[in-house]
Amino acid sequence: MATIIQPTPQAWDAFVSAQPGAHVLQLWSWGELKRAYGWDVERIAIERDGQMVAGAQLLFRPLPFGLGTMAYLPMGPYVSAGLEQELWRALDDSVRRRNGAFIKWEPGIVASHNPADLQKLGYRPSPQTVQPPRTILIDISDPDDVILARMNQGTRRKIRQSLKHGIRYYAGSADDVPTFTDMMRTTGARNAFGVHEPAYYELAYRLFAPQGYARLFLAEHEGDPLAGIMVFAVGKTAWYLYGASSNVKRNLMATYGVQWQAIQWAKSKGCTHYDMWGIPDEDEATLEAQFEQRSDGLWGVYGFKRGWGGKVVRSAGAWDKVYNPLVYAAYRLALRVRKPGE
Asked: In this predicted model, what pLDDT tens digit does every residue of 302-319 receive, in sequence order?
């Protein structure tokens, strides 16, 4: 008999980690990170014969003007055959209990969903995504020389250059996070994109790094911080979520060196894929035709990410299920009239 349970953090993370589509956005700590920044969290787990066999981490956020809540299901759910209806019914009940106007579902890359299947579940294509739907996945299951051979010549050269000149690469501790956040502010100002407040990255480190789900890599040269990235890993995939660099000694190519260090760490954890996390949502022909002329949005990072020998892939995007049509219509209208960047 299957029953709905309240899992412990340890049991939940063990369940997520064992899934073929294990994702960092379904880890317990991701929910706690989002809870600290305005979201509420519910983990819905189904147990059968003493084992967790289905589950999803749902996030909730109040809508403006007291119009209920928006529910968000990122990169899940996980469900065994035969329990699909029970899990989706539990998700519906959770959203309705919290006065949810709609739920936004992003199944992710590994989920093999087609539009007909999503529509049968009551979902419709959404005009708004939360996570970038398109990314570059690097196969890191091969030896280093094979991984390097798939890269373009410029990226290989810059990696080799980054390993010279006495640059020190090291795994940062909690004491090093302020160095990283300082570089994040510098990077945001230089490239004209928004970054989180320092406390966000500090909390992310405290939640994920001690459990082995994240690592901060930094590069410095003669006392000058040059670059840093925060990389996350669970199951067979690692994600390059946050990256930063200073304005000094950029000719030393430290951004390539820290990325290579992170790939080595991901391999050591048994990951087979490294997700560069976010490129413009365009087909590959358009990306290649325009990346040298554009720097807006995610175009500014595509030129860097394209050289690592990965494959451009697109997830199923975002899908909405509506519980309150009037509120959802107002949400759609707000999306149409909002200004860029809002």
From this structure: 999 999 999 999 998 999
